[in-house]
Structures are given as C-alpha cells and as structure tokens.
Amino acid sequence: MTPRRRARMAAIQTLFELDFQDRPPDDVIGERLAEVTLTIEGQQFVHDLVHGVVHHREEIDARIAAAAPQWPIEQIAHVDKNVLRLAIYELMFDNSAPAKVAISEAIELARLLGSAASPKFVNGVLGAVMATKEVN
Prior knowledge:
This protein is mostly helical.
C-alpha cells in the first residue's frame, strides 16, 4: 500500500469515528496516527485531509446529495460517505492530486473498506460530481 493511500485510509478512519463521537478532530487524528507508520509529510496529509473535510463538510455533503438524490445522506453507509467526502474534498478544494488519481484512490479505498457495492456506488457519485464540476 502506498504511503498516500495509508494516509487516506487513516483520514477516512478518523472521519468515520468523528461521525459517531463529538471529539476534537486532532485527538482522533493522533490516535489513528499512533496506529500507522507515516512520514511527517504523510501525517501532515492526514491532518490536511481531515481538517479540510471537516471545514467544507456542508458543501461536500450538498454535492453528495445532488449527485445521489435517491440516497439521502443519512442513509449512505458511513464508510461510503466518508470515502466520498474525502474524494470530493480532494477534487474540489485540495487539488494536490490529479482528478483521476483521487477518483481511483477513492474507488480502491471503497473496495478495501466498504461493501461489495461500494466501489460502483463511489464511482457513480464521483462521476456525477465531476460532471457538475466541469459544467460550473
């Protein structure tokens, strides 16, 4: 597993935990980073991803809702929702990775962490998000 994928996985695990607990993101990030070996750059990437998603969460969730109107945000599996949040943050706000890389990583993380249907669902939602990004 690449270092950036490990960092993305730690970020998703942090975001997942934050869905269920009212705790400061840095506390949860610290716990997740204690469980994984990352460089200083990888650790900073986790911080940047988590804080970016938390900061832009309302707008990200609105994009998910618009791209998947048949799935209310509260009914999307937490793993899938957080994979999508992370990918949409990378696509719309971070731009440190090419869109194809961010989408491929999201699909792979959905395959590793989600259900059998997760990769297809994530791919479909991200495709719809990218279609609206190109129009705007």
